[in-house]
Amino acid sequence: MRLSTLDILRCPYCGGRLELVESLPHDQRGLSLVSGILGCNCCTFPVVSAIPIMHLEPWAVAAREALEADRAEEAERILLAPGEERLGKRFQELAAIPTSSYRELVDALGPAFEGGYFLYRFSDPTYVVARAVIEAVAGTVLSGGGRAIDVCGGSGHLTRSLLGLSTKDPIIADLYFAKLWLARRFMAPTCEPVCCDANEPLPFARGSFDFAVCSDVFHYIWMKRQLVGELARLVEHSGPGAVVISHMHNQREWSPSFGQPLPPGGYRDLFETLSPKLFAESGFLADVIAGGPLDLSRLDDDATLDADSALTIVASRHEEVFRAHPIAVPSGADGELRLNPLYASEVDGDQVRLSLRFPSQEYEDEYGACRRYLPDQAVMDRDVWDALLRGQWSAEALDLLRRRVVLDLPERYY
């Protein structure tokens, strides 16, 4: 972690500032802290592989004890796969190989790590909508400078879209250390990861950010009122500020992964200091499929909200947020252009035939709406395919990118 992050980091329990306990083993390299113990007025917290662990779950305590005994590698292994030393060791072995892919490292953590969900996320409807909303809102409130945070950000798929918007490198916060490790290694290498529990007060100073997002997880949070208050606190200052909570399951509609959702009015009532605007997600998906604009000026009535399986909240005092925003058209790649992993390829003479294949029935049940923009079949010229395999791209590949048959993926994604 950058030592400058201590300026905004706070204990989630006493709210106190933190400092390095220099009497305990630590690894400081210039302006970065690779490992060590942070202390406040009430607690001590480990920093492992440059990630501060700002909670007191049993595996965090065990990692802190390993660090205090000067066993940093063991501390990392404990956090990577709590209670599964074999998996943690296998992950470390693969991580030491520079050419290891995101997919290989995710698979090393076993099926309980939700690897399928993460692997296919870049073309999921939930991601497609969330990214469009984030780029519209963050692009507005951060246009004059400011910092963003992705709360419950997983392994950083959406954090990657914040890299060009956040003046200071964005923060990604999640409970699970391995996800944050992967976010920094693959998705958003310059992001600043912080391991914390969204069911507890967030370990940051008031007003540290101008934009906060929480996507595709809020319905699983038990302390919803507290988290909304915390998100509002993080963006509370004299600037515009905005909070986005995207893909919240609707209590009035069935979902394959239900969680503990609220009805639309229940989500709206969570806000006290910011006036929220609630949207039906299907309207945003339609905007994206049509090529834009993304209409944040729309007013979805109660019947529309009640009938949608997923909802998005945007809360901001910045009036420019609530207008129609153009949706950017891809004109190149930030990473590598690769075939969408949902497609199987078959070489047929001078062409390559592509077929959409879902990894499971469960996946199709939850994310099958991607059929609205992903074709069941597509054809690519063999020379375009060969160029993609060499890391090159063409006008035809760019067209497939716009159709999400080809994706702009981080290096060594799969």
Task: Characterize the structure shown.
- With 414 residues, the protein is an alpha+beta fold.
- It folds into four domains: 1-79, no CATH class; 81-111; 121-325, Rossmann fold (3-Layer(aba) Sandwich); 336-409, no CATH class.
- The protein is 31% helix and 21% strand.
- The chain contains 15 helices and 19 strands.
- Strands 8-7-6-9-10-13-11 form a seven-stranded mixed sheet, with helices on both faces. Strands 1, 2, 3, 4 and 5 form a five-stranded antiparallel sheet that branches.
- A hairpin with a 2-residue loop joins strand 4 and strand 5.
- Helix 1 runs antiparallel to helix 2, helix 2 crosses helix 3 (85-95) and helix 3 (85-95) runs antiparallel to helix 4 (102-108).
- The longest helix is centred in the N-terminal third of the chain and has 17 residues, at 125-141.
- The radius of gyration is 22 Å and the shape is globular.
- The mean pLDDT is 95.
